[in-house]
Amino acid sequence: MRDSPGTVPALSLDCPWKFMRKNREFYKGGLSHIFNRGVAKENIFRENDDFAFYTYKIKEFIQKYPVVIHAYNLLPNHVHYLIEQNSDITPSKFIGGIHTSVGMHINRKYSRVGHLFQDRFKSKNIGEGSILPISIYINLNKILEKLEHADGSNISKEQLGKLLNEAEQDPWSSYGVYLGLRKDGITETKLVLSLLSDDFEKAKVEYKKLARELLVSGYFLKTRALNFE
Fold first, then answer.
1. Which residue in 17, 34, 36, 43 has the most C-beta neighbors within 10 A?
2. Which of the two residues, 119 and 65, has the higher pLDDT score?
């Protein structure tokens, strides 16, 4: 899957970030893109302390229900993961444990009642050809959400640069971890980066370049109607 420097690796061109309602298929060694949103599309997180509590719970439940998290992003009203099952325990236990605990905490904190998360989480199995674009889709999801609701269809280099810088500095996603800007005690980057190069420092540079190229190319459905100037 590795290509010469400056080229975009051959990627699966299906729509791996689109979900279908079907029975989950988890198995040891399998990778899944997992997504869940707040009930009635309400915000899950209202302030930074809520995001911080959620990441604390990720670290806690990794110890109880071990999985490998290859990418994640926490947005105000939904969450994304690229998760690998590495034992006989399925990711359902991990996600269910976190979301039950976080739901109880948020309800107490804000004096609310009822479910915090909408229905059961959605999941799609990920093949090897989709690992790279899915990780980038997850890591850049805040940008994709902003661009989807942007006024007009023209995005300047300055606007795009600002959005990418925000993604790099975002403490609630794994993008900065992939670029070597920080460690979070959550994300395992080696599998994804190894698809770009055996030299991980080079792979980090290539990952950043590929993320931008996929964003402006219209590869992701949410940016296909936009013109990046």
1. 34
2. 65
CA distances from 100 to 42, 131, 209 (A): 17, 28, 38
Calpha distance 64→66 (Å, rounded): 6
Q: Which residue has the tokens 């931008």?
A: 212
Go through the domains of the chain in sequence order and give each one's CATH number: 23-126 (3.30.70.1290), 129-229 (no CATH)
Phi then psi for residue 146, to 5 deg, are -65, -40
Average pLDDT over residues 10-20: 52
Alpha carbon distance, N-terminus to C-terminus of the chain: 30
Please name the residue that has the structure tokens 């690796």.
9
**Residue 82 confidence (pLDDT):** 98
Both tokens of 182, joined, read 């920080």
- Band (130; pLDDT cuts 50, 70, 90): very high
| Gyration radius from the chain CA atoms | 17
Residue 34 is encoded by which pair of tokens?
């997992």
| Cα separation, 182 vs 136, whole angstroms | 17
DSSP character string of 127-146: -GGGHHHHHHHHHTHHHHHH
Other CB atoms within a 10 A radius of the CB of residue 7 amount to 12
Q: Residue 75's beta-bridge partner residues?
A: 78
In whole angstroms, give the CA distance from residue 144 to residue 92.
Answer: 26
Cα–Cα distance list, 214 to 24, 106, 137, 209, 224 (Å): 28, 36, 9, 9, 11
- Residue 128 pLDDT more than 90? no
How many H helices and E strands in the chain?
8, 6
